[in-house]
Amino acid sequence: MTRKQNSAKGRITAEDLRKLLREDQDLLKTIVEETLQQVLEAEMDEALQASKSERTAGRLGYRAGYYNRMLVTRVGHIELRVPQDRQGRFRTEVFERYQRSEKALVAAMLEMYVQGVSTRKVKTITEELCGHEFSSSTISRIVQKLDQELERFARRRLEEPYPYLILDARYEKIREDGAVRSQAVLVAIGINWEGRQNILAVELASRESLSSWKELLAGLRQRSLHGVEFVVSDDHAGLRRAIQEALPEAVWQRCYVHFLRNALDYLPRKADDDCLQELRWIYHRRDAQEARQDLAAWLQKWGKRYAKLCAWAEENIEETLSFYRLPRQHHKNLKSTNMLERLMEEIKRRTLVVRIFPNAAACLRLVRALTVETHENWIEAMQYLNMEPLREQKKEALRKLGDAA
Hints:
Blueprint: H1 3-8, H2 14-23, H3 27-48, E1 63-73, E2 76-85, H4 94-114, H5 122-130, H6 136-154, E3 164-176, E4 179-191, E5 197-205, H7 210-222, E6 230-233, H8 237-246, E7 251-254, H9 256-263, H10 273-281, H11 288-302, H12 307-316, H13 328-334, H14 338-351, E8 356-357, H15 360-380, H16 388-404
């Protein structure tokens, strides 16, 4: 029987498995390392009777950072960050439990992350990897529990205000009805008044459209999203209109990086590099007045040589200058979607291992798992923005309003 016939019957061969591991030799190591890290965090949550940053009267203590611990496994050396509590009482059983169930864990995690919700190939995979059979029903229970946890995160109430909101999308290949199609992963990030980044939503849609973005923003509203004053995104027509309809009170900033990329469409291939470089400098000025002065000079200098570009820029550039309304300390972070682009690159790096997802649920599971991990790291990390300048700006605006009255 040929390999093609094998695959058609839903079986994975030893050669298929070896090829997968050759393409990414660190796949198993990454899966095992991240899974054990999640177990450590869960143990600490249980010990303290509170999760990270959770405010509860029943808390039994507080976290106090991490120490590194190396673990030798059959997939290589993995390094774990073991959480500590201030009283020094926390003790983990991960290492002992891992040694007892290593084969089953490796097999289960490989199936979860590479095969998605399908458990048809569990027996072959586990026998090839470990010489140990792990039942399909057990894997299904593990997957179901993970899905429930991710769904709770995705539907949690948003209790605090988020003055800044950043939106973007990327595409993943998914097998659906016997054909491979690209589907959009829509992501929303908020920055709260503590200056911390939070992943607010990760949703899958057949394509990036007005209806898909309206549905995401409506879902955020239902989960009590409030206090949004400034939204950053690219100029996708559906997204732009959805923001206008769902968040009419917010100021919209068109990502200047996307704007500069779009500008290339209006330039000949052998255009002068200084033209775009000087256009880029407009976004590094102290305030909007300086930026508009530079724009006028730029239009005068290049207007005759690149009339098409200058006409387009003059018509559209104003929507990329909204960030000048914010405190200068926030300009660098909120004039583009670069912060979210970095998250998208990390998602891409991990989803490339799968290449084509067996179904939409498998794709959403992996992407949400990755973003939850990032969200937790952000909460524990240093403050992303100092929000005091924005508070002072708002106070000053209220004072001027009062004086005018």
